[in-house]
Design brief:
By secondary structure, the chain is α/β, with parallel strands linked by helices. 45% of the residues lie in helices and 21% in strands. Strand 1 and strand 2 form a beta hairpin. Helix 2 packs parallel to helix 4. The protein is globular and about 45 Å long. Bound molecules: ligand C2E and calcium ion (2 copies). The site of ligand C2E has 23 residues, from strand 2, helix 1, helix 2 and strand 6.
């Protein structure tokens, strides 16, 4: 099967600076059309085929963005780990080896895990601890949609919570779930974690999130998931518009 990876910019909400990207896989069919991951990932996970997908995504990140990541050490890429990766931690030594060869720092790769990977919570905790000891940041994805209680979350070795798009969608709509959104944000803050809002589509949503001191966000308001070349161009343009010199120049005496 032929996979390609697109990159959705991750934005520091207050400044508008692009601090990284999330790697999102697509399946390219022989006729060139793209299949969205929610249509094939669940199937692939059940059949065990997902393991090679994570490997391929990491390969793609290194091939597509390796040079960019080496040139800008402040940039990171978030990779989605499937439930099995979180349970077994199988990917970690492979990741370590590949990153070392490419000269990418582990701090530049963030791992995202959904609560589907927490069925065996002790196994998940072990993988997350190992990942953090290696230098990666770990985020809970789709936060708010699972069964997370504050109590078990505060025991988990975590760096960030990604607030699910369904909560962002309700901002400004006055619907029942929208009253939950501030609590979800407050929960993340209580835990002392970075917060990332997913699926920001309107300026109104962005303004609300900034007001609530949510640190980071991604969504169509800023950029859709982009092919690698388009992401690199977006990042360069973003840096230029924010008056940030490329890292290479900044490092010069
Ligand atoms: P996710 O990790 O929650 O990814 C966020 C999804 O929201 C992405 O859908 C992204 O394209 C979409 N999105 C971002 N901003 C907006 C917005 O403003 N509006 C709308 N309507 N959508 C937005 P995508 O790319 O279709 O991915 C769907 C899911 O597939 C992901 O959800 C993730 O769970 C899974 N997935 C994607 N790539 C991988 C991968 O490499 N490995 C694994 N295990 N799962 C992956
Ligand atoms: Ca994700
Ligand atoms: Ca999500």
């Amino acid at each position: 099967m032929n996979f390609v990876v697109h990159y959705q910019p991750l934005i520091e909400l207050k400044s508008g600076i692009c601090v990284g990207a999330e790697a999102l896989v697509r399946w390219r069919r022989p006729d060139g059309t793209m299949v969205r991951p929610d249509l094939f990932i669940p199937l692939a996970e059940e059949s065990g085929l997902i393991l090679p997908i994570t490997d391929q995504v990491i390969e793609a990140v290194i091939a597509d963005l390796g040079t960019t990541l080496v040139a800008d050490r402040s940039l990171h890429v978030a990779v989605n780990f499937c439930a099995d990766d979180i349970r077994t931690g199988r990917m970690l030594p492979i990741l370590e080896h590949k990153l070392r060869n490419a000269g990418i720092r582990p701090q530049q790769i963030w791992l995202e895990a959904t609560e589907r990977g927490f069925i065996d919570i002790e196994a998940a905790r072990a993988t997350m601890s190992r990942a953090r000891a290696m230098g990666h940041s770990v985020a809970i994805d789709d936060f708010g949609t699972g069964y997370s209680s504050l109590q078990y979350l505060q025991d988990l070795p975590l760096d960030a919570l990604k607030i699910d798009k369904s909560f962002i969608d309700t901002i400004g709509k006055g619907s029942a779930t929208s009253s939950v959104t501030p609590h979800i944000i407050a929960m993340a803050k209580t835990l002392g974690l970075f917060t990332v809002a997913e699926g920001i589509e309107t300026q109104e949503q962005a303004d609300y999130l900034i007001d609530q001191a949510v640190g980071f966000g991604q969504g169509w308001l800023y950029a859709r998931p982009l092919p690698a070349k388009a992401f690199i161009a977006f990042h360069q343009q973003n840096q230029a518009s924010k008056g940030i010199a490329p890292e290479v120049l900044r490092a010069a005496p």
